[in-house]
Every structure is written in structure tokens, then in C-alpha cells.
Amino acid sequence: MPRRRIGFAYRFAAVICKPPLVVLLKRDWRGMENIPAEGGFITAVNHNSHIDPFAYAHFQYNTGRVPRFLAKSSLFNKGFVGAMMRGTGQIPVYRESTDALSAFRAAIDAVERGECVAFYPEGTLTRDPDGWPMTGKTGAARVALQTRCPVVPVAQWGANEVLPPYAGRPRLFPRKTHRVLAGPPVDLDRFYGREMTPELLKEATEAIMAAVTRHLEEIRGEKAPEVPYDPQRERVEQRRKTRAQTRRRGHDGPSERRPSAHGSPADGAQGGSQHQEGRHQERQNEQWRTGKRATAREEGLNT
User: What is the reported pTM?
Assistant: First the structure.
């Protein structure tokens, strides 16, 4: 897409955003030649910082093919933010739609108009402890298989060193480097012409995420985990652990550890907590001392 089609609003946003990005981040950008010069396409990008959409948009703006990001439809109705979202051609996603494909209809239309649609397939900031891409959602694969457009995998690293995921305070110094590597389009030919089942979409999504992860390995000079972090699997495992702990507590019998009204362990108790045992022993000792003093007084009175 030629620069003349970028539009005033996008140029205005660039005038505001580019200077602080230039000051904040050094740049190591590779793979611009893999961004198609014309026609609609998708970029699939990893997401590891709240500021990486701006850093990545800077990279792609400089290629002459500006990205149209997907965003919640509610943002498009919020004053200045909504005006900028509409003016820069960002794409609303109507999550209340019951049809998974119609939720991305605007993205499909944008691709068919010759636009670049930027997807964060993870759907949110990565929760992988080491910042690697998680398992992806199927939206990018749906649009790609529907339109048969190129899917360019893009890996980025560095914005997360300025503002790590879920961090409250940025780390501005020393100056960080934003590294980007855009690879050649993912080969999805084997998925075309087949029924768009959940299994097919999952397989196509895994192919896209594998390409993004390989490029991030190259940027970082490290090996990614064999199995990507899966938030859904993690939630299931956490619920399983919680149920197991609840069952263990029920088996141990929490009522056995509950003290009686007199401060001693309840009937059937097998020891209770160490704290309760200590308090009970102290009460017994005090009762013994009180009884001994009373006996001594009686003996004194009887002499």
C-alpha cells in the first residue's frame, strides 16, 4: 500500500508517537522485505508488553504498509480515543457475536480491500514466565483461511524490557533495543479447501505460532520451551490442585482441629495445631500451679 493511502489521522498519530519511541528505544529491525508491497495480508505478532503495539506499529509504519489492529468495539465510542481508532482505520471486533467468523468480518473485509491486519494471536500479554509466545487463538487462522491471504510471522523483543508484562513501573535506563524480525509468509496451502473445523483451525494456528516462536528464538539466541504455555491448561491444572487440596482438608477433618468451648481439643481430636497444643499445655500448667498454691495455703492454715 503506497504511503499516500496512510491517511491524515495515521500520520498525525505517528507525529505524536514516533519521537518518544525514537528517544526511548534503539532499533534492530529485520525482514522488512517480507512485508508485501501490495495486496491484503495478515501479520501475526507476539505480545509481551503494553507498549509493544506502539513499537511494532513504528516498525511497520516505516515499511509503508501501516497495520490495522483489532480492538474491542467499545473503544470506538470513547471520545478522542474512539475518534483516533476510527480515523486510523483500526478494526472493531464485536465479541458479543455468536458466530465466530462474523466476529472477524471487518478484518476479512479489510484484507479483501488490500489492507494489512495485525493480529496478536495470543489474545493478551503472554503469561509465559520467560516471555515466550503462548498458544494462539484461532482468529488469525480463520481470516487467513477465509481470504487465502499471506500471513507474515513477526517476532519482537525489547519493549518488554522497558515495560515488562504486568509491571507497574517502566525501566527507562539504560536505553533498550527494540528487535523485530518479520519472516516470509507461513505456508498454509495444506489447509485450503478443507472444512474449517476446530481441529483444522487449531492446527493452522499452531503452524503460525511456531513460525513466530522460531523467529523469536533467532532474536533472543535462545531455545523456546518444547510445549508452549497454555493458559487454559494452566487454569484446569490450578482448579485440579485446588480440588485436591480441598479433598485433603476434608479427609483430615477440619472439625478435629477446632478447639472446644473449654479451650481443650474437641472430642476425637488427634493433636490439633502446635499453637493450640501449646496454649492448652500452658493452661494446664497454670491450673497445676494454682492448685499447688491453694494446697500450701490450706496446710498453713491447718498448722
Answer: 0.78
Name the DSSP class of 259: B
Name the 3-class secondary structure at 160: helix
Give the pLDDT band of residue 255 (cuts 50, 70, 90): very low
Torsion on CA atoms 126, 130, 132, 136, rounded to nearest 10: -40
Q: Which of 10, 157, 24 is nearest to 85 (CA)?
A: 10
Question: What secondary structure does DSSP assign to 189-237, as a single string?
Answer: GGGTTS---HHHHHHHHHHHHHHHHHHHHHHHTSPPPSS---HHHHHHH
Instruction: Tell me what pLDDT residue 279 has.
Output: 55
| SS3 assignment for 18-44 | HHHHHHHEEEEEECHHHCCCCCCEEEE
- For residue 185, whether the previous peptide bond is cis, meaning omega lies within 30 degrees of 0, is no
SS3 187: coil
CA distance from start to end of the chain: 114
Q: Compute the C-alpha angle 33/37/43, nearest 5°.
A: 70
Residue 134 · residue 231 · CB < 8 Å: yes
Highest mean pLDDT among 89-98, 173-182, 237-246: 173-182
